[in-house]
Known about the structure:
Blueprint: H1 2-13, E1 16-26, E2 30-36, E3 43-44, E4 47-49, H2 56-68, E5 70-74, E6 80-87, E7 93-108, E8 120-124, H3 125-131, H4 135-148
Parallel strand pairs: 1-7
Antiparallel strand pairs: 1-2, 1-4, 2-3, 2-8, 5-7, 6-7
Amino acid sequence: MRDRMARVDLAIEEIRPQVAALPYRHAPDLEILLVTSRETGRWVIPKGKLMKGLTLWEAAAQEALEEAGVVGVIGETPLGTYDYVKFLKSGVGAACRVTVFPLAVREQLPTWLEQHQRESRWFAWAEAVEAVHETGLGAIVEAFARERS
């Protein structure tokens, strides 16, 4: 039993923490901005590693700026977390746990850092739920949208 617990702890320690922004607007209905991942082209939200010197929500807002060119008001309370496997260039999968923060978008800039590496598109919230691959992310989007409806 003790050996089994040690393996569980080890597995938990190997999960890589990430942060993400859930960019949204009312136009007039709730819309969610999704971007494609660089590696697979799947629809995701802007996300990435924690950044030294920034809070979790500030890092999430920075990812949204770099990946989608959006700026706005970032919430400091997470909407939730979801897990996924990121496949590294070596082909090895790394387990990631993403903490998601809401971002009320005020503006999408005409140019941004990763503009030519990703596609971005506004989705009606129900379409966004269907477009994302990760079930946990879809559940967060749906709960967020229903809370605002």
